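Tip: read the tokens left to right.
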């Protein structure tokens, strides 16, 4: 454990520990919690999440993501390296996390089990970081647990975490149970299995879906996943857009009842106008990093 109270994994080499600590402190704002602005859906969900009824026209332009990340309070902005390369020169102060794999949603699980292959390597991200001098603080990777291709994704994920730590980068794994062998993707025991798998992979943070079970409160059954993760910190996916008060209450429950260490929010931010997105982002940040109440966060959003 470092002097700051952060547990530095033993696969972080001595020469990279100072950078790892700096990156970890930056993305968590010394709070131990992560407010991740998820901007990887341009591939994951194609244009359905960016154009259409109920989506503000600001979201039609990819630069909307960068404007939000630049003007709002966030921990880190996660997106693909290609977008960062195209827009990063105008948003050099944004803290970035590079998503290393992505896939579209065109091929359904009923047709084929999901496999999200790695696009680029961690050493290429490190090279880009050094050449661009942007704030590249971490990398992310998605695993579909239960897919018949899980063994390859688990192998890639293990390599990503290890290599990220070699460069002092923070690692975040997206782990979703999904495939023809999975009958209930949000089963609490299965979500806990996902966070336990993340711990075995050695990642710093894991993003999972909020569990659902008939007759049980999600905020209570989510505690199992937090315990299963051990020293790996758990953040919850934001999900589809919902009204701000409900979203903020659920977020507060996830952190202060269940014990999660933050959130990963996309659609509930970028589908709004820039002004609304910034206010919502700041409200989420207030709960996640500043320990604000739901009412205090709503005052920020409504203000």
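Filled-in amino acids:
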């Amino acid at each position: 454990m470092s002097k700051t109270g952060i547990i530095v994994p033993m696969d972080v080499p001595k020469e990279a520990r100072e950078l790892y600590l700096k990156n970890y402190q930056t993305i968590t704002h010394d709070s131990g919690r992560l407010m991740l602005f998820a901007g990887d859906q341009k591939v994951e969900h194609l244009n359905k999440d960016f154009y259409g009824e109920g989506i503000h026209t600001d979201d039609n332009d990819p630069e909307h993501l960068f404007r939000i990340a630049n003007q709002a309070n966030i921990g880190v902005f996660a997106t693909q390296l290609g977008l960062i390369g195209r827009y990063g020169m105008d948003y050099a102060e944004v803290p970035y996390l590079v998503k290393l794999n992505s896939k579209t949603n065109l091929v359904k699980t009923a047709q084929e089990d999901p496999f999200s292959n790695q696009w680029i390597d961690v050493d290429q991200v490190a090279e880009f970081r050094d050449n661009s001098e942007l704030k590249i603080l971490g990398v992310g990777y998605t695993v579909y647990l239960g897919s018949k291709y899980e063994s390859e994704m688990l192998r890639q994920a293990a390599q990503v975490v290890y290599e990220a730590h070699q460069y002092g980068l923070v690692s975040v794994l997206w782990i979703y149970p999904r495939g023809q062998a999975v009958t209930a993707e949000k089963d609490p025991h299965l979500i806990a299995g996902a966070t336990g798998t993340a711990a075995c992979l050695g990642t710093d943070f894991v993003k999972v879906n909020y569990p659902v079970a008939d007759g049980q409160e999600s905020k209570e059954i989510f505690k199992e996943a937090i315990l299963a993760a051990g020293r790996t910190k758990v953040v919850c996916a934001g999900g589809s857009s919902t009204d701000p008060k409900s979203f903020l209450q659920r977020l507060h429950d996830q952190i202060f009842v269940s014990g999660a260490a933050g959130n990963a929010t996309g659609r509930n931010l970028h589908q709004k106008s820039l002004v609304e997105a910034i206010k919502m982002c700041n409200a989420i940040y207030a709960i996640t990093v500043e320990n604000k109440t739901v009412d205090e966060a709503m005052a920020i959003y409504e203000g």
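The chain has one domain: 14-302. The CA atoms of residues 249 and 294 lie 6 Å apart.
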